[in-house]
């Protein structure tokens, strides 16, 4: 019972974060919201008895993707400053 | 009840995230927002695939303390969707990195991140 | 114009919602494994000797998919390296040194994170983990290295050699499988050993370690390319 309640709370938070990622004006907040979606998906994978997939999603979707996004945003900002 | 089981809730979450992600791809005009929505669509499809392979009251497909070698077929969930999703997650991050590099080249060429300003292919 | 665009968008999303509600209503949860998964569950531990069933599927039973995935990652890293090519005379912009807290903490954390990454891909056949997860953790520790030494250049010759040698060894091990055992990427070229120890499951630890090193070096190379700030480049 407590498992199903936790799952419903996490799904609602994931949907709210998806709306924030699409509609917020600032790009940094949108990128972090997509990282939070990956993190909660990794927890749901543990509930679904898939530990391999949970490790992969947590390390790749939540750390590397957000890192690459921030590197590209930094390069775009430096283009603006240089010219 | 049918809607309050584990795989039904995660499948519903996957479907709703898929719809929100596709709506984000179509309705946004900033290129980086479109790439973020693409990453959300990717995550939702992986969630759907893994939640189809779940069987109730069974555990992870690793032979150890709880699962013995002889009757593993009655105690584990489906390992094939997990193997496919493992590959798909790594390919997804490669595609996202490629998309972001292309958007950086487009920004250098045209100094703008809106897709309405790239109309050199329209006649 | 805006009303037309919004109504078309609503129509598309509504159609997708109708399709998905239909799919969701037809789903019935299962009670038993389907025949393919049952074959893998019954014969997997004896034929391959690995305790982790997902590892034995990814490396031996569906090894060609892993070969395709390694190829796609290599292609991605090569294309990113081509598009973000730096010139010879490009110099790094002068950034200030990282603070003492960052250098000290990363001096402690970087060896620990690298060790965890190597542990994850070496024990891929016993516990949850494997080559791709370990490679991603190695790339994360490389991000920390780049943040800690932010005002020096880092040469990428070691990363290039690691990635090239790991990739070629992976293919050579696969071809050895054709010559000595059943087929491409067969793991019976090395003895199967005791079930559940580190040196078991034939060639699976060796193959997964090579994949882990290759993926880690590749993702670190991508991050290194994205980090360097270039000078003026010519239009392609």
Structural topology:
The complex is a heterotrimer of chains A (83), B (123) and C (236).
Chain A: H1 2-23, H2 27-47, H3 51-82
Helix pairs in contact in A: 1-2, 2-3
Chain B: H1 6-27, H2 31-52, H3 79-110
Helix pairs in contact in B: 1-2, 2-3
Chain C: H1 2-25, H2 35-48, H3 53-61, H4 63-83, H5 100-122, H6 131-148, H7 157-180, H8 204-227
Summary keywords:
heterotrimer, B: 123 residues, mainly alpha, Helix Hairpins, elongated, C: 236 residues, disordered C terminus
Could you explain the architecture of this structure?
The complex is a heterotrimer of chains A (83), B (123) and C (236). Chain A has 3 helices and no strands. Chain A is mainly alpha-helical. Chain A starts with a helix and ends with a helix. The relative contact order of chain A is 0.11. The model of chain A has no long low-confidence stretch (mean pLDDT 92). Chain B is mainly alpha-helical and 123 residues long. In chain B, 62% of the residues lie in helices and 0% in strands. Chain B has 3 helices and no strands. In chain B, helix 1 runs antiparallel to helix 2 and helix 2 runs antiparallel to helix 3. The longest helix of chain B is centred in the C-terminal third of the chain and has 32 residues. The mean pLDDT of chain B is 90. By secondary structure, chain C is an all-alpha fold. Chain C has a domain of 155 residues. In chain C, 67% of the residues lie in helices and 0% in strands. At the A-C interface, helix 3 of A face helix 6 and helix 8 of C.
């Amino acid at each position: 019972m407590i498992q199903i309640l936790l799952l419903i709370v996490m799904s609602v938070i994931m949907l709210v974060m998806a709306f924030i990622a699409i509609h917020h004006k600032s790009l940094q907040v949108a990128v972090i919201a997509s990282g939070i979606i990956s993190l909660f998906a990794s927890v749901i994978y543990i509930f679904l008895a898939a530990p391999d997939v949970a490790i992969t999603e947590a390390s790749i979707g939540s750390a590397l993707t957000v890192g690459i996004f921030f590197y590209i945003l930094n390069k775009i900002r430096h283009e603006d400053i240089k010219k | 009840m049918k809607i309050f089981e584990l795989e039904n809730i995660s499948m519903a979450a996957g479907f709703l995230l898929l719809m929100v992600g596709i709506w984000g791809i179509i309705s946004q005009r900033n290129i980086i927002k479109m790439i973020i929505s693409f990453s959300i669509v990717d995550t939702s499809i992986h969630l759907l695939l893994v939640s189809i392979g779940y069987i109730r009251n069974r555990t992870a497909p690793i032979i150890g303390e709880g699962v013995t070698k002889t009757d593993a077929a009655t105690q584990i969930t489906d390992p094939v969707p997990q193997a496919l999703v493992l590959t798909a997650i790594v390919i997804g991050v490669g595609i996202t990195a490629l998309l972001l590099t292309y958007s950086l080249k487009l920004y250098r060429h045209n100094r703008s991140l809106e897709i309405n300003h790239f109309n050199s292919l329209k006649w | 114009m805006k009303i037309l665009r919004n109504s078309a968008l609503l129509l598309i999303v509504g159609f997708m919602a109708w399709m998905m509600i239909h799919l969701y209503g037809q789903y019935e949860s299962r009670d038993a494994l389907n025949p393919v998964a049952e074959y893998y569950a019954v014969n997997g531990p004896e034929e391959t000797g690995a305790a982790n069933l997902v590892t034995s599927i990814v490396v031996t039973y569906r090894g060609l998919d892993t070969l395709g995935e390694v190829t796609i990652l290599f292609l991605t890293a090569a294309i990113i390296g081509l598009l973000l090519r730096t010139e010879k005379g490009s110099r790094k912009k002068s950034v200030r040194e990282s603070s003492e807290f960052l250098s000290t903490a990363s001096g402690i954390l970087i060896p620990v994170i690298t060790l965890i990454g190597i542990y994850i891909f070496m024990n891929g056949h016993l516990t949850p983990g494997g080559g791709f997860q370990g490679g991603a953790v190695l790339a994360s520790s490389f991000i920390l290295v780049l943040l800690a030494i932010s005002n020096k250049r880092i040469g990428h010759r070691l990363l290039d050699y690691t990635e090239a040698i790991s990739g070629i060894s992976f293919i050579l091990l696969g071809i050895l499988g054709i010559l000595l055992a059943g087929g491409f990427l067969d793991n019976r070229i090395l003895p199967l050993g005791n079930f559940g120890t580190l040196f078991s499951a034939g060639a699976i630890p060796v193959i997964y370690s090579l994949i882990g090193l290759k993926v880690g070096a590749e993702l670190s190379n991508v991050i290194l390319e994205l980090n360097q700030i270039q000078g003026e480049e010519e239009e392609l």
